[in-house]
Amino acid sequence: MSRKIGDVLARTFREVCEENNSNKRLAEYNYLSNEEIIEICDILKKIDNEHYDMINVLNKYIKLEEGEERE
Fold this sequence. Notes:
Blueprint: H1 6-22, H2 24-30, H3 34-45, H4 54-61
Helix pairs in contact: 1-3
């Protein structure tokens, strides 16, 4: 039986974001709304599905075109 990591990634991402958002110095530059956190967690939870193209979904989420690099 293979180990599923999607839920672990989503939980870790949420914890890091919540900690970041609670730190005023960090949140000033890197604040993520609850809606954004929920959307990204939903993406991460699906990573265990072998037919799920997470890279493509993330690129669409952050509105990157194929071949474009984000700074």
